[in-house]
Protein backbone atom coordinates (compact mmCIF):
# COMPACT_ATOMS: atom_id res chain seq x y z
CA UNK A 1 0.00 0.00 0.00
CA UNK A 2 3.07 2.26 0.00
CA UNK A 3 3.65 4.53 -2.97
CA UNK A 4 6.80 6.56 -3.54
CA UNK A 5 6.35 10.13 -4.72
CA UNK A 6 9.36 11.83 -6.21
CA UNK A 7 7.85 14.62 -8.33
CA UNK A 8 6.87 17.85 -6.66
CA UNK A 9 4.41 18.31 -9.53
CA UNK A 10 2.50 15.19 -8.53
CA UNK A 11 -1.21 15.97 -8.27
CA UNK A 12 -1.47 14.58 -4.74
CA UNK A 13 1.42 16.75 -3.56
CA UNK A 14 -0.42 19.82 -4.84
CA UNK A 15 -3.56 18.77 -3.00
CA UNK A 16 -1.67 18.19 0.26
CA UNK A 17 0.03 21.55 0.00
CA UNK A 18 -3.35 23.18 -0.49
CA UNK A 19 -4.58 21.83 2.87
CA UNK A 20 -3.07 24.80 4.67
CA UNK A 21 -5.76 26.96 2.98
CA UNK A 22 -9.49 26.99 3.65
CA UNK A 23 -10.16 26.59 -0.08
CA UNK A 24 -7.93 23.54 -0.28
CA UNK A 25 -9.59 21.95 2.73
CA UNK A 26 -13.04 22.60 1.31
CA UNK A 27 -12.22 21.20 -2.14
CA UNK A 28 -10.98 17.90 -0.80
CA UNK A 29 -13.10 17.92 2.38
CA UNK A 30 -10.00 17.00 4.35
CA UNK A 31 -7.33 18.53 6.55
CA UNK A 32 -3.74 17.86 7.48
CA UNK A 33 -2.11 16.68 10.70
CA UNK A 34 1.55 17.66 10.95
CA UNK A 35 4.18 15.94 13.02
CA UNK A 36 4.34 12.59 14.78
CA UNK A 37 2.71 13.73 17.99
CA UNK A 38 -0.55 14.62 16.25
CA UNK A 39 -0.51 11.61 13.93
CA UNK A 40 0.03 9.36 16.95
CA UNK A 41 -2.81 11.03 18.86
CA UNK A 42 -5.13 10.46 15.89
CA UNK A 43 -4.13 6.80 15.70
CA UNK A 44 -4.61 6.36 19.45
CA UNK A 45 -8.05 7.96 19.23
CA UNK A 46 -8.95 5.65 16.33
CA UNK A 47 -9.61 8.57 14.00
CA UNK A 48 -10.51 7.98 10.32
CA UNK A 49 -7.09 8.80 8.84
CA UNK A 50 -7.22 8.66 5.03
CA UNK A 51 -3.49 8.69 4.27
CA UNK A 52 -0.11 8.85 5.93
CA UNK A 53 2.69 10.78 4.23
CA UNK A 54 6.28 10.81 5.34
CA UNK A 55 9.92 10.76 4.44
CA UNK A 56 11.61 7.35 4.20
CA UNK A 57 13.28 7.97 7.57
CA UNK A 58 10.05 8.92 9.34
CA UNK A 59 8.06 6.05 7.88
CA UNK A 60 10.79 3.62 8.91
CA UNK A 61 11.01 5.08 12.42
CA UNK A 62 7.29 4.55 13.03
CA UNK A 63 6.73 1.47 10.83
CA UNK A 64 5.82 -0.73 13.79
CA UNK A 65 2.80 1.36 14.74
CA UNK A 66 1.56 2.61 11.38
CA UNK A 67 -1.70 0.94 10.37
CA UNK A 68 -1.39 -1.42 7.43
CA UNK A 69 -4.83 -0.63 6.03
CA UNK A 70 -4.24 3.08 5.38
CA UNK A 71 -2.68 4.45 2.18
CA UNK A 72 0.90 5.43 2.80
CA UNK A 73 3.04 7.72 0.66
CA UNK A 74 6.79 8.01 0.88
CA UNK A 75 7.97 11.52 0.07
CA UNK A 76 11.41 12.81 -0.78
CA UNK A 77 12.84 15.12 1.90
CA UNK A 78 12.51 18.12 -0.40
CA UNK A 79 8.82 17.44 -1.12
CA UNK A 80 8.08 16.88 2.57
CA UNK A 81 9.44 20.35 3.32
CA UNK A 82 6.83 21.94 1.02
CA UNK A 83 3.86 20.42 2.87
CA UNK A 84 2.34 21.90 6.00
CA UNK A 85 3.56 25.07 7.66
CA UNK A 86 5.75 24.15 10.61
CA UNK A 87 8.98 26.10 10.90
CA UNK A 88 10.79 22.88 11.68
CA UNK A 89 8.90 20.25 9.68
CA UNK A 90 9.12 16.75 11.09
CA UNK A 91 8.54 14.99 7.76
CA UNK A 92 5.44 13.07 8.75
CA UNK A 93 1.79 13.93 8.14
CA UNK A 94 -1.66 12.40 7.95
CA UNK A 95 -4.79 13.49 6.12
CA UNK A 96 -8.16 13.34 7.80
CA UNK A 97 -11.68 13.97 6.46
CA UNK A 98 -13.35 17.13 7.74
CA UNK A 99 -15.77 15.81 10.36
CA UNK A 100 -19.45 15.55 9.47
CA UNK A 101 -20.75 14.82 12.92
CA UNK A 102 -24.36 15.59 13.64
CA UNK A 103 -24.48 19.14 14.97
CA UNK A 104 -24.54 19.27 18.78
CA UNK A 105 -27.78 20.67 20.15
CA UNK A 106 -27.35 23.26 22.93
CA UNK A 107 -30.72 22.11 24.31
CA UNK A 108 -29.27 18.74 25.20
CA UNK A 109 -25.48 19.32 25.45
CA UNK A 110 -24.06 17.83 28.66
CA UNK A 111 -21.14 18.76 30.91
CA UNK A 112 -18.85 21.76 30.74
CA UNK A 113 -18.26 23.91 27.69
CA UNK A 114 -15.90 26.66 26.59
CA UNK A 115 -17.39 29.27 24.25
CA UNK A 116 -14.97 31.30 22.08
CA UNK A 117 -16.15 34.74 20.99
CA UNK A 118 -14.01 36.09 18.13
CA UNK A 119 -10.75 34.73 19.46
CA UNK A 120 -8.18 35.35 16.75
CA UNK A 121 -4.79 33.93 17.60
CA UNK A 122 -4.39 30.31 16.44
CA UNK A 123 -1.95 29.46 19.25
CA UNK A 124 -4.36 30.83 21.87
CA UNK A 125 -7.28 28.88 20.40
CA UNK A 126 -5.40 25.60 20.27
CA UNK A 127 -4.07 26.06 23.80
CA UNK A 128 -7.59 26.77 25.10
CA UNK A 129 -8.93 23.57 23.50
CA UNK A 130 -6.07 21.63 25.10
CA UNK A 131 -6.79 23.27 28.48
CA UNK A 132 -10.53 22.58 28.18
CA UNK A 133 -9.66 18.92 27.62
CA UNK A 134 -7.35 18.89 30.66
CA UNK A 135 -10.06 20.52 32.81
CA UNK A 136 -12.52 17.77 31.84
CA UNK A 137 -14.82 19.88 29.68
CA UNK A 138 -17.10 18.23 27.10
CA UNK A 139 -16.49 20.61 24.24
CA UNK A 140 -15.65 23.98 22.75
CA UNK A 141 -17.99 26.14 20.68
CA UNK A 142 -16.32 28.37 18.10
CA UNK A 143 -18.58 31.41 17.76
CA UNK A 144 -18.66 33.62 14.69
CA UNK A 145 -15.39 35.39 13.98
CA UNK A 146 -13.14 32.91 15.79
CA UNK A 147 -10.26 31.52 13.74
CA UNK A 148 -10.73 28.15 12.03
CA UNK A 149 -9.96 25.03 14.01
CA UNK A 150 -8.22 23.54 10.98
CA UNK A 151 -5.43 26.10 10.78
CA UNK A 152 -2.13 24.24 11.15
CA UNK A 153 -1.10 26.30 14.17
CA UNK A 154 -4.42 25.65 15.91
CA UNK A 155 -4.00 21.93 15.27
CA UNK A 156 -0.45 21.95 16.63
CA UNK A 157 -1.41 23.82 19.80
CA UNK A 158 -4.37 21.51 20.46
CA UNK A 159 -1.88 18.62 20.74
CA UNK A 160 -4.55 16.05 19.90
CA UNK A 161 -7.26 17.41 22.22
CA UNK A 162 -9.51 17.81 19.17
CA UNK A 163 -9.91 14.03 19.37
CA UNK A 164 -10.97 14.17 23.03
CA UNK A 165 -13.45 17.06 23.20
CA UNK A 166 -16.30 18.05 20.89
CA UNK A 167 -15.63 21.03 18.65
CA UNK A 168 -18.67 22.91 17.34
CA UNK A 169 -19.10 25.99 15.16
CA UNK A 170 -22.27 27.81 16.14
CA UNK A 171 -23.92 31.08 17.15
CA UNK A 172 -23.04 31.85 20.77
CA UNK A 173 -26.31 33.75 21.30
CA UNK A 174 -28.16 30.47 20.75
CA UNK A 175 -25.88 28.50 23.05
CA UNK A 176 -25.86 31.01 25.89
CA UNK A 177 -29.63 31.41 25.78
CA UNK A 178 -30.20 27.66 25.63
CA UNK A 179 -27.92 27.06 28.63
CA UNK A 180 -29.40 29.78 30.81
CA UNK A 181 -32.93 28.61 29.90
CA UNK A 182 -31.87 25.18 31.17
CA UNK A 183 -30.58 26.87 34.39
CA UNK A 184 -27.01 25.95 33.52
CA UNK A 185 -24.62 28.77 34.53
CA UNK A 186 -22.80 30.64 31.77
CA UNK A 187 -19.90 32.77 33.00
CA UNK A 188 -18.66 35.52 30.75
CA UNK A 189 -15.25 37.09 31.26
CA UNK A 190 -14.56 40.76 31.49
CA UNK A 191 -11.67 43.14 32.05
CA UNK A 192 -13.89 45.40 34.13
CA UNK A 193 -13.09 45.35 37.87
CA UNK A 194 -16.82 46.03 38.39
CA UNK A 195 -17.49 42.46 37.29
CA UNK A 196 -17.54 39.59 39.77
CA UNK A 197 -14.17 38.53 41.21
CA UNK A 198 -13.70 34.95 39.92
CA UNK A 199 -12.35 33.86 43.32
CA UNK A 200 -15.76 34.50 44.85
CA UNK A 201 -17.56 32.09 42.55
CA UNK A 202 -17.97 28.44 43.53
CA UNK A 203 -17.12 25.58 41.18
CA UNK A 204 -19.96 24.89 38.74
CA UNK A 205 -22.38 22.30 40.23
CA UNK A 206 -22.00 18.91 38.51
CA UNK A 207 -19.50 20.63 36.18
CA UNK A 208 -22.38 21.50 33.84
CA UNK A 209 -22.22 25.01 32.40
CA UNK A 210 -20.03 27.23 30.29
CA UNK A 211 -17.26 29.83 30.29
CA UNK A 212 -17.03 32.45 27.52
CA UNK A 213 -13.66 33.89 26.45
CA UNK A 214 -13.55 36.96 24.22
CA UNK A 215 -11.36 38.56 21.59
CA UNK A 216 -7.74 39.27 22.55
CA UNK A 217 -8.03 43.02 22.07
CA UNK A 218 -11.67 43.81 22.65
CA UNK A 219 -12.85 41.15 25.04
CA UNK A 220 -16.26 39.59 24.85
CA UNK A 221 -18.98 41.26 22.78
CA UNK A 222 -21.26 43.43 24.97
CA UNK A 223 -24.43 41.85 23.56
CA UNK A 224 -23.18 38.43 24.69
CA UNK A 225 -22.18 39.78 28.12
CA UNK A 226 -25.79 40.80 28.65
CA UNK A 227 -26.97 37.20 28.12
CA UNK A 228 -24.70 35.46 30.64
CA UNK A 229 -25.51 34.35 34.16
CA UNK A 230 -22.63 36.49 35.42
CA UNK A 231 -19.43 38.05 34.10
CA UNK A 232 -16.18 37.31 35.90
CA UNK A 233 -13.04 39.34 36.36
CA UNK A 234 -9.52 38.17 37.30
CA UNK A 235 -7.98 40.87 39.54
CA UNK A 236 -4.68 42.16 38.17
CA UNK A 237 -2.27 42.95 41.00
CA UNK A 238 0.76 44.22 39.08
CA UNK A 239 1.10 46.66 36.23
CA UNK A 240 0.30 44.31 33.36
CA UNK A 241 -2.71 45.60 31.44
CA UNK A 242 -4.23 42.18 30.99
CA UNK A 243 -3.58 38.45 30.93
CA UNK A 244 -3.05 36.41 27.81
CA UNK A 245 -6.49 35.02 26.89
CA UNK A 246 -5.38 31.38 27.08
CA UNK A 247 -3.87 31.90 30.54
CA UNK A 248 -7.04 33.65 31.72
CA UNK A 249 -9.13 30.80 30.29
CA UNK A 250 -6.99 28.28 32.17
CA UNK A 251 -7.36 30.10 35.48
CA UNK A 252 -11.14 30.40 35.13
CA UNK A 253 -11.74 26.88 33.76
CA UNK A 254 -9.67 25.26 36.51
CA UNK A 255 -11.45 27.35 39.13
CA UNK A 256 -14.93 26.46 37.85
CA UNK A 257 -14.45 22.94 36.49
CA UNK A 258 -10.99 21.69 37.54
CA UNK B 1 17.19 65.21 15.81
CA UNK B 2 15.48 63.28 12.99
CA UNK B 3 17.62 61.65 10.33
CA UNK B 4 16.27 60.02 7.16
CA UNK B 5 17.77 56.72 6.16
CA UNK B 6 17.20 55.57 2.60
CA UNK B 7 20.03 53.10 1.96
CA UNK B 8 19.65 49.54 3.14
CA UNK B 9 23.46 49.38 3.24
CA UNK B 10 23.60 52.09 5.91
CA UNK B 11 25.79 50.98 8.79
CA UNK B 12 23.10 51.68 11.38
CA UNK B 13 20.56 49.58 9.47
CA UNK B 14 22.96 46.66 9.56
CA UNK B 15 23.40 47.07 13.31
CA UNK B 16 19.66 47.22 13.92
CA UNK B 17 19.11 44.09 11.84
CA UNK B 18 21.75 42.32 13.88
CA UNK B 19 19.79 42.93 17.10
CA UNK B 20 17.71 39.81 16.48
CA UNK B 21 20.89 37.78 17.15
CA UNK B 22 22.70 37.29 20.43
CA UNK B 23 25.98 38.30 18.76
CA UNK B 24 24.48 41.53 17.49
CA UNK B 25 23.03 42.40 20.88
CA UNK B 26 26.36 41.71 22.56
CA UNK B 27 28.38 43.78 20.09
CA UNK B 28 26.27 46.89 20.54
CA UNK B 29 25.15 46.11 24.12
CA UNK B 30 21.61 46.92 23.08
CA UNK B 31 18.36 45.24 22.06
CA UNK B 32 15.33 46.04 19.96
CA UNK B 33 11.71 46.75 20.87
CA UNK B 34 9.31 46.08 18.00
CA UNK B 35 5.90 47.63 17.53
CA UNK B 36 4.14 50.58 19.05
CA UNK B 37 2.78 48.74 22.05
CA UNK B 38 6.26 47.90 23.37
CA UNK B 39 7.76 51.27 22.49
CA UNK B 40 4.89 52.98 24.30
CA UNK B 41 5.32 50.75 27.36
CA UNK B 42 9.03 51.64 27.47
CA UNK B 43 8.22 55.35 27.24
CA UNK B 44 5.57 55.05 29.96
CA UNK B 45 8.04 53.22 32.20
CA UNK B 46 10.65 55.94 31.57
CA UNK B 47 13.13 53.44 30.13
CA UNK B 48 16.48 54.61 28.72
CA UNK B 49 15.57 54.37 25.02
CA UNK B 50 18.59 55.20 22.85
CA UNK B 51 16.87 55.62 19.48
CA UNK B 52 13.47 55.46 17.84
CA UNK B 53 13.21 54.13 14.30
CA UNK B 54 10.09 54.23 12.17
CA UNK B 55 8.51 54.75 8.82
CA UNK B 56 7.33 58.27 7.99
CA UNK B 57 3.74 57.19 8.61
CA UNK B 58 4.47 55.66 12.00
CA UNK B 59 6.59 58.57 13.20
CA UNK B 60 3.87 61.00 12.15
CA UNK B 61 1.14 58.94 13.83
CA UNK B 62 2.95 59.05 17.18
CA UNK B 63 4.73 62.40 16.85
CA UNK B 64 2.83 63.94 19.74
CA UNK B 65 4.16 61.45 22.29
CA UNK B 66 7.65 60.73 20.97
CA UNK B 67 10.33 62.25 23.20
CA UNK B 68 12.21 65.14 21.60
CA UNK B 69 15.52 64.30 23.29
CA UNK B 70 15.97 60.85 21.75
CA UNK B 71 17.60 60.21 18.37
CA UNK B 72 14.96 59.47 15.78
CA UNK B 73 15.48 57.79 12.41
CA UNK B 74 12.97 57.82 9.59
CA UNK B 75 13.18 54.61 7.54
CA UNK B 76 11.79 53.82 4.13
CA UNK B 77 9.04 51.20 4.20
CA UNK B 78 11.30 48.66 2.53
CA UNK B 79 14.10 49.13 5.08
CA UNK B 80 11.64 48.95 7.99
CA UNK B 81 10.52 45.51 6.76
CA UNK B 82 14.06 44.16 7.11
CA UNK B 83 14.37 45.05 10.80
CA UNK B 84 13.04 42.88 13.60
CA UNK B 85 11.30 39.58 13.09
CA UNK B 86 7.54 40.14 13.34
CA UNK B 87 5.47 38.44 10.65
CA UNK B 88 3.49 41.62 10.30
CA UNK B 89 5.97 44.41 11.05
CA UNK B 90 4.41 47.60 12.36
CA UNK B 91 7.15 49.88 11.11
CA UNK B 92 8.18 51.32 14.47
CA UNK B 93 11.02 50.27 16.79
CA UNK B 94 13.18 51.49 19.62
CA UNK B 95 16.65 50.49 20.74
CA UNK B 96 17.46 50.02 24.41
CA UNK B 97 20.73 49.34 26.22
CA UNK B 98 21.07 45.86 27.71
CA UNK B 99 20.43 46.46 31.41
CA UNK B 100 23.39 46.56 33.77
CA UNK B 101 21.45 46.51 36.99
CA UNK B 102 23.22 45.30 40.11
CA UNK B 103 22.54 41.56 40.37
CA UNK B 104 19.66 40.75 42.67
CA UNK B 105 20.71 38.83 45.76
CA UNK B 106 18.52 35.82 46.63
CA UNK B 107 19.45 36.39 50.30
CA UNK B 108 17.54 39.64 50.32
CA UNK B 109 15.05 39.38 47.42
CA UNK B 110 11.54 40.38 48.52
CA UNK B 111 8.07 39.30 47.45
CA UNK B 112 7.01 36.61 45.00
CA UNK B 113 9.21 35.12 42.30
CA UNK B 114 8.85 32.85 39.31
CA UNK B 115 11.83 30.58 38.58
CA UNK B 116 12.19 29.23 35.01
CA UNK B 117 14.09 25.96 34.64
CA UNK B 118 15.10 25.34 31.01
CA UNK B 119 11.89 26.71 29.52
CA UNK B 120 12.44 26.85 25.77
CA UNK B 121 9.55 28.38 23.90
CA UNK B 122 9.87 32.18 23.58
CA UNK B 123 6.10 32.70 23.52
CA UNK B 124 5.68 30.66 26.71
CA UNK B 125 8.47 32.57 28.47
CA UNK B 126 7.10 35.97 27.52
CA UNK B 127 3.58 34.99 28.54
CA UNK B 128 4.83 33.76 31.93
CA UNK B 129 6.62 37.06 32.60
CA UNK B 130 3.41 38.91 31.70
CA UNK B 131 1.40 36.62 33.98
CA UNK B 132 3.91 37.01 36.84
CA UNK B 133 3.46 40.78 36.51
CA UNK B 134 -0.34 40.45 36.56
CA UNK B 135 -0.17 38.21 39.64
CA UNK B 136 1.86 40.87 41.48
CA UNK B 137 5.18 39.02 41.58
CA UNK B 138 8.44 40.90 42.10
CA UNK B 139 10.51 39.15 39.47
CA UNK B 140 11.42 36.20 37.29
CA UNK B 141 14.69 34.26 37.48
CA UNK B 142 15.87 32.71 34.21
CA UNK B 143 17.80 29.58 35.18
CA UNK B 144 20.45 28.00 33.00
CA UNK B 145 19.11 26.69 29.70
CA UNK B 146 16.07 28.96 29.50
CA UNK B 147 15.75 30.95 26.29
CA UNK B 148 17.06 34.53 26.24
CA UNK B 149 14.78 37.29 27.41
CA UNK B 150 15.90 39.46 24.49
CA UNK B 151 14.54 37.21 21.74
CA UNK B 152 12.04 39.28 19.76
CA UNK B 153 9.23 36.80 20.38
CA UNK B 154 9.91 36.83 24.14
CA UNK B 155 9.80 40.63 24.11
CA UNK B 156 6.53 40.67 22.16
CA UNK B 157 4.86 38.16 24.47
CA UNK B 158 5.96 40.05 27.60
CA UNK B 159 3.93 43.04 26.38
CA UNK B 160 6.00 45.46 28.42
CA UNK B 161 6.02 43.47 31.66
CA UNK B 162 9.83 43.42 31.50
CA UNK B 163 9.59 47.05 32.63
CA UNK B 164 7.42 46.16 35.63
CA UNK B 165 9.09 43.10 37.13
CA UNK B 166 12.76 42.30 37.76
CA UNK B 167 14.35 39.84 35.34
CA UNK B 168 17.42 37.99 36.58
CA UNK B 169 19.66 35.32 35.04
CA UNK B 170 21.05 33.06 37.77
CA UNK B 171 21.58 29.55 39.03
CA UNK B 172 18.30 28.20 40.38
CA UNK B 173 20.07 25.95 42.89
CA UNK B 174 21.36 29.08 44.61
CA UNK B 175 17.98 30.80 44.58
CA UNK B 176 15.99 27.81 45.80
CA UNK B 177 18.45 27.10 48.61
CA UNK B 178 18.60 30.75 49.65
CA UNK B 179 14.79 30.99 49.79
CA UNK B 180 14.28 27.80 51.75
CA UNK B 181 17.07 28.79 54.17
CA UNK B 182 15.11 32.01 54.74
CA UNK B 183 11.97 29.88 55.36
CA UNK B 184 10.33 31.25 52.23
CA UNK B 185 8.31 28.54 50.47
CA UNK B 186 9.48 27.38 47.04
CA UNK B 187 6.91 25.33 45.14
CA UNK B 188 8.13 23.14 42.31
CA UNK B 189 5.74 21.82 39.67
CA UNK B 190 5.47 18.26 38.60
CA UNK B 191 3.45 16.07 36.26
CA UNK B 192 3.42 13.27 38.81
CA UNK B 193 0.03 12.71 40.45
CA UNK B 194 2.00 11.62 43.55
CA UNK B 195 2.96 15.27 44.04
CA UNK B 196 0.80 17.60 46.13
CA UNK B 197 -2.53 18.68 44.57
CA UNK B 198 -2.13 22.45 44.07
CA UNK B 199 -5.70 23.02 45.29
CA UNK B 200 -4.70 21.80 48.75
CA UNK B 201 -2.01 24.44 49.20
CA UNK B 202 -2.85 27.78 50.78
CA UNK B 203 -1.82 31.10 49.24
CA UNK B 204 1.78 31.99 50.11
CA UNK B 205 1.92 34.03 53.36
CA UNK B 206 2.70 37.68 52.66
CA UNK B 207 3.10 36.66 49.00
CA UNK B 208 6.79 35.97 49.66
CA UNK B 209 8.11 32.83 48.01
CA UNK B 210 8.59 31.23 44.62
CA UNK B 211 7.10 28.92 42.01
CA UNK B 212 9.34 26.91 39.66
CA UNK B 213 8.21 25.99 36.14
CA UNK B 214 10.16 23.41 34.14
CA UNK B 215 10.98 22.53 30.57
CA UNK B 216 8.05 21.98 28.18
CA UNK B 217 8.91 18.38 27.42
CA UNK B 218 10.82 17.15 30.46
CA UNK B 219 9.44 19.21 33.31
CA UNK B 220 11.58 20.48 36.15
CA UNK B 221 15.04 18.98 36.71
CA UNK B 222 14.96 16.23 39.39
CA UNK B 223 17.88 17.77 41.30
CA UNK B 224 15.92 21.02 41.64
CA UNK B 225 12.77 19.17 42.68
CA UNK B 226 14.69 17.74 45.61
CA UNK B 227 15.51 21.25 46.87
CA UNK B 228 11.98 22.68 46.93
CA UNK B 229 9.66 23.04 49.90
CA UNK B 230 7.07 20.98 48.03
CA UNK B 231 6.24 19.98 44.45
CA UNK B 232 2.74 20.67 43.15
CA UNK B 233 0.62 18.86 40.62
CA UNK B 234 -2.40 20.16 38.67
CA UNK B 235 -4.86 17.25 38.32
CA UNK B 236 -5.75 16.53 34.69
CA UNK B 237 -9.37 15.46 34.38
CA UNK B 238 -9.69 14.84 30.65
CA UNK B 239 -7.47 12.99 28.19
CA UNK B 240 -4.94 15.76 27.53
CA UNK B 241 -1.46 14.58 28.48
CA UNK B 242 -0.46 17.87 30.03
CA UNK B 243 -1.14 21.58 30.18
CA UNK B 244 0.76 24.23 28.25
CA UNK B 245 3.49 25.44 30.63
CA UNK B 246 2.32 29.07 30.56
CA UNK B 247 -1.25 28.06 31.36
CA UNK B 248 -0.03 25.84 34.22
CA UNK B 249 2.12 28.69 35.51
CA UNK B 250 -0.90 31.01 35.44
CA UNK B 251 -3.08 28.59 37.38
CA UNK B 252 -0.42 28.02 40.06
CA UNK B 253 0.71 31.66 40.35
CA UNK B 254 -2.87 32.93 40.70
CA UNK B 255 -3.60 30.21 43.26
CA UNK B 256 -0.52 31.03 45.37
CA UNK B 257 -0.09 34.77 44.82
CA UNK B 258 -3.20 36.10 42.99
From TrEMBL, chains A, B:
Family: Belongs to the class IV-like SAM-binding methyltransferase superfamily. RNA methyltransferase TrmH family.
UniProt xrefs under SMART domains: SpoU_sub_bind
Location of the RNA 2-O ribose methyltransferase substrate binding domain: 32-102
Keyword entries, A-Z: Methyltransferase, Transferase
Name by which UniProt lists this protein: 23S rRNA methyltransferase
Superkingdom classification of source: Bacteria
Pfam families hit by this protein: MRM3-like_sub_bind, SpoU_methylase
UniProt-listed GO biological process terms: methylation
GO MF, one annotated term: methyltransferase activity
Amino acid sequence: MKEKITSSQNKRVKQWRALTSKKGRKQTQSYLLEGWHLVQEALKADQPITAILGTADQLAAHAAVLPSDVDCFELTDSIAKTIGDANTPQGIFATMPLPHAAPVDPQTAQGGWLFLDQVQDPGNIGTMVRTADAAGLTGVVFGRGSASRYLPKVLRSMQGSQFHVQLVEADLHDWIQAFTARHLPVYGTNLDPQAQDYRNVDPVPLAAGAVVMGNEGNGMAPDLQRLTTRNLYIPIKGQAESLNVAVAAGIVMFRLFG
